[in-house]
Every structure is written in structure tokens, then in C-alpha cells.
Fold this protein.
Amino acid sequence: MSVLRNLEQRIENLVEGVFSRAFSSQVQPVEIARKLAKEMDAHRTASVSRVYVPNQYTVWLSVEDRERLEGYERSLEQELSAYLLEHARRHDYALLTRPEVELESDDRLRLGEFGIQTRLVKPPARQGEAPEQGEQGHTMVYSVPPKQTKSRRRQPAAHLTETKAIVSLDDRRYVLDGPMAVLGRSREADCVLNDPNVSRHHAELRRGPTGDWQIVDLESTNGVKVNDRQVDASRLSPGDRVTLGTVQFIFDIEH
């Protein structure tokens, strides 16, 4: 069994039962660990001879999820830090310090959503000096797809391309697994847009069998625009500018 698998097992054992009950929306520590590693990979910075990666990670949880972690939050942070350290060693990444993971609350997140923000922090050159902090990256927001009911028939995997939709706002990026995602002001939406000009259920992103995506207006009050063109439904391409009411985001696809 690999070192990474051992770490995954330790994380699972750390909060077995308790964590799965707390995160009724299916978010699990191993899933957070894997997304942390993904963010480490995504924020590599190459120098002449080394590849540096962030050493500070903030995991944003919904208020409900964070409250239910009371009592074992610090232990989980330490295990996630160990997971990232081993991931960096396996990929020969350079770290300025041991990775630090901190869990925080964000009242904009719903139960089952979590965000990850990275930062490269240089240790102080002299005792008493404050550490030099680099610019924070965007917060990547992940959500766990709902369980499919047994009655729902699955299409053969060979005919499906399971891409993910990425919605990039000013300071946040939502990663939407699909096959459908509702955008709107409602807290029940898959991507919550807190703006009075956005309808509660404003639009829906739909993934096609070949992995392409389209956006469909759900009879919203202020409509949907793609690259400044009013649409009822439109296929989306990476880099398209989508406007819902007065909120604009950049669309992208993750394969």
C-alpha cells in the first residue's frame, strides 16, 4: 500500500463515522485532500531549477459543516498537511515551509460545498520579522454531486464524456460536476449569485453527452446574455462571457 494511500486511510479513520454523519452531504476528508493536492498542482511556479508550490491553504466550509467539526478540527488539519507534504515530495515540488492547512467558515457556502484558497508564504529572514505573504489565489469552490437514485438509468459510460463546468466570478470559481447545475439567487441553487437583479432560479447549465455545455434561461426576469447577446439557450465555449441580470462570469470547461 502506497504512502499516500496510508495517509488517506489515516484521514478516513480519524473521523470515521463522526465525519460522515457531520457531512451528510457526502463531503469526505479524502475528497478535500485530493482537491488540495489538485490546487497545489494548479499553482506551481517554476524557477530556473525548481518548481515551487503554495505552502498555505485555507479550506472554506459552510457554517453548518464547520460547526460539526468541533473537537477534531486540529487533527484533521494536521493530517491534511501531511497529505500535501507527501504529495509535494512525490512530485519533487519545492516548499518554503511545511504546508499549513486551516479550516474556516464562509456563510456564502451551502452544506456540502467547500472552497480552497492557496498562498505562497516566505518565512521571515530574521527573528521577529513577519513572514512575507504572496498574493492569494482565487477561491476554488467545489460541491459534491448528489447521489443518483437506483431508479435512474445510467447511459453507457462509453457514450458519455464527463467534463466539469467552471464559473469564474471576481473572486470565486465554482467547479460544477453536472450533468445539470442551477444558477440563481436561491440558497438551493448549485451556484448561488447574491444579487437582487438575479432571479432565484435564473438559468441552468446542462452538459451534453459529448462533454459540451449549454446555458438555458429559466424564464428569469432580467434574462441571459452570452458575449453581450441575449439568448434563451446557447451552447457555451471556454472563455465565453455570460451575464445574468447584472452579474457577469467567465465560463470554462475542465476535462
User: Anything to note?
Assistant: The chain has five helices and 19 strands. The first helix runs from residue 3 to 14. The CA atoms of residues 125 and 183 lie 46 Å apart.
